[in-house]
Specification:
By secondary structure, this protein is mainly alpha-helical. The protein contains eleven helices and no strands.
């Protein structure tokens, strides 16, 4: 058994493609982690999935024929997230969010005091939105992707992206409105 024969089986990029990968794909590592974090709602799971997605992107970079490297990478991250969720959280993908079934336990006074921060409130509200709606919100509002990029990443028509985004915004708005009375700062 020679080591030369094994090297051909490995998906290793030559120096030129490796430099191209580093230039085109690596700058979007934060966006990849951000999308994974919002879809999976767990930092450690997102780190694992983002790393797996980057390995997949590296392994299949030879197949990248130009275009939007960010959209290409985020599509890989999205697919990796959904594959991970199917294995680990199959119920979450098939269950639509129902306020009656998925009620949050009431927070303690200490938690309510801490919850005054709008960013925390937004994050909690966003986590109540189903994953497929959450992803279009994150891609559009946090990552600044165009409808066309989101359509490419999610592999759905632009019209579907637009309607999903509208529904996602409505659900997020409802979640924020429901959280507001409980979390309104109290005057001393």
């Amino acid at each position: 058994m020679t080591s030369g024969g094994q090297g051909k089986d490995l998906d290793v990029l030559d120096l030129q493609n490796r430099a191209r990968f580093e230039q085109l794909v690596l700058p979007h590592l934060d966006a990849a982690f951000n999308l994974a974090r919002w879809l999976l709602r767990s930092r450690s799971d997102a780190e694992d999935v983002a790393q797996e997605a980057m390995l997949r992107a590296f392994r299949f970079f030879r197949g990248f024929n130009g275009g939007d490297a960010r959209a290409w990478l985020l599509q890989i991250v999205r697919n990796t997230c959904y594959t991970w969720m199917e294995k680990n959280r199959s119920v979450e993908l098939t269950t639509e969010f129902n306020e009656e079934v998925h009620q949050q336990p009431s927070d303690s006074p200490e938690a309510l005091a801490i919850a005054g921060d709008n960013r925390e409130r937004l994050a909690r509200a966003l986590e109540t939105v189903p994953p497929r709606f959450r992803e279009v919100l994150v891609l559009r509002e946090f990552e600044g992707c165009s409808y066309k990029e989101i359509a490419a990443i999610t592999a759905v028509p632009i019209g579907t992206v637009m309607s999903a985004l509208a529904r996602a915004r409505q659900r997020l708005s409802r979640a924020l409105a429901q959280a507001t009375p409980q979390e309104a700062p109290r005057e001393l």
